[in-house]
Design goal:
The structure is a single chain. The chain is an alpha+beta fold. The relative contact order is 0.11. 4-amino-1,4-dioxobutan-2-aminium adenosine-5'-monophosphate binds next to strand 11, strand 17, strand 18 and helix 13.
């Protein structure tokens, strides 16, 4: 009976068949150990010399890493085996002998691994990251579904910018210039007016010129948008989402966190409430370490790191000056210099994981903001309609999936948090 390695404990004492690939092997005297992976896990299989009559021993000696195979054997409990179970082999059917698989168990440089990403994904650490990524996506969707949100996906090809014009990827659209979407937000504001609580989750694009460990040119963003929600409630919603996601990963992906050697103590600290500070308070913290930072400057990665060092939990920074935020941010009626914006800075130096805020819902102010940001009115005409026909207070945010995965996995660079990363001038494979 074909089973998956992740379910192996259920078959103790039974004969099972695993369809997969050889991950690694070792020999010790008259015993051969082969590690087989099937996409759900890795299991050790034992072959002893007295099985040589069946040709098994010879197969174990000739089989190479990443050869495809079908293994049949009896499941045994063994505390010494990785995962606690092993398979006493009865048969190995070799499907293909892989020759000279380039990735060996030794350490390779990133320059070697990145062009071999299609193979690198088979390694144990990458396996763990992809499984945690999946769990995070599932947790985000479950959380929002449980709260009654509808998933309404937004277009990828768009005529206008959302997050400024300097990071747009132009696409020729039957002779017209359009762009790959930077964010589904503006469309989500329309669907929130139609359906109340919505979210989209999809790829977003930024022609980032910066080569940092936090930037991809194509990344996935979860973007909820909520009608009649104001800034403080929005912050509480983000907080609840993050606690839910971290708790789910801690409960469901222990094995993967162990493979990654993730210190789970800081993740255990992710409980409500998260600190909430104003931009001004954040500036005071930064100025203690960086004398050249001035009120009104935007935060770069080093500043975010300074902030996160001061807190064990994610930190909300709200009320940024209007000048450093996008045109759609609502001005604070009590302090027009400030916007009703919020960013969440992750702990342990992972930088900005979430950006959002309350949207400008006044037609005239929005027209003024477009002018100030030198954005043409025409492509935003439909968006302005939302302020003409039943405008309403509303808020939303975008959670960057890859940065969230990097944080929860404890991986330094976002390039390992997506199957095929796209970065500045890097698009192979
Ligand atoms: O702060 P950003 O630019 O916000 C927006 O796009 C809003 N329109 C979202 C909304 O309110 N619906 O991006 C949101 C998040 C960031 O906090 C970060 O986690 C991630 O997206 N992000 C990136 N991740 C990887 N590579 C990049 N180049 C990223 N740019 C933003
Ligand atoms: Mg941002």
């Amino acid at each position: 009976m074909q089973v998956y390695i992740q379910d192996i404990a259920k078959y103790e004492g039974k004969a099972v068949t695993i369809k997969g690939w050889l991950y690694n092997k070792r020999s010790s005297g008259k015993v051969r150990f082969i590690l087989v992976r099937d996409g759900t896990g890795i299991v050790q299989s034992v072959i002893s010399a007295d099985q040589s009559g069946q040709g098994l021993f010879e197969t174990a000696d000739t089989i190479t890493r990443e050869s495809s195979l079908i293994l049949t054997g009896i499941v045994r409990k063994d505390a010494r085996a990785p995962g606690g179970y092993e398979i006493t082999a009865q048969n190995i059917e070799l499907i293909q002998l892989a020759r000279d698989y380039p990735i060996t168990p030794k350490e390779h440089s990133i320059e070697f691994l990145l062009p071999r990403r299609h193979l690198w994904l088979r390694s144990r650490k990458q396996f763990a990251i992809m499984r945690i990524r999946h769990q995070i996506i599932r947790a985000c969707r479950n959380f929002l579904d449980q709260q009654g949100f509808l998933c309404i996906d937004c277009p990828i090809l768009t005529p206008a910018s959302v997050e400024g014009t300097t990071t747009l990827f132009p696409v020729d659209y039957y002779g017209d210039k359009v762009y790959l979407t930077q964010s589904g937000q503006l469309y989500n504001e329309a669907t929130a007016a139609a359906l109340g609580r919505v979210y989209c989750f999809g790829p977003t694009f930024r022609a980032e010129k910066s080569k940092t460990r936090r930037h991809l040119t194509e990344f996935w963003m979860l973007e909820p948008e909520i009608a009649y929600m104001e800034l403080n409630e929005l912050i509480s919603l983000i907080e609840d989402l993050i606690v839910y996601v971290v708790t789910e990963v801690l409960e469901q992906r222990k094995t993967e966190l162990t493979i990654l050697e993730r210190d789970i103590k800081p993740l255990g600290n992710i409980k409500k409430p998260f600190p909430r500070i104003t931009y001004k308070e954040a500036v005071d913290i930064i100025k203690k370490e960086d004398k050249n930072f001035h009120y009104g400057d935007d935060f770069g990665a080093p500043h975010e790191t300074i902030i996160s060092k001061n807190f064990e939990r994610p930190v909300f920074i709200h009320h940024y000056p209007v000048g450093i935020k996008a045109f759609y941010m609502k001005q604070d009626p009590k302090d027009p210099e400030c916007s009703l914006s919020v960013d969440m800075i992750g702990p342990e130096g992972y930088g900005e994981l979430v950006g959002g805020g309350q949207r400008e819902d006044d037609y005239d102010t929005l027209i003024k903001k477009l002018k100030e940001k030198k954005l043409p009115e025409e492509p935003y005409r439909w968006y302005l309609d939302l302020r003409r026909y039943g405008t309403f207070p509303h808020s939303g945010f975008g959670l960057g999936l890859e940065r969230t995965v990097a944080w929860i996995c404890g991986i330094r660079h976002v390039r390992e948090t997506i199957a095929f990363p796209r970065m500045l001038e890097k698009i192979y494979p």
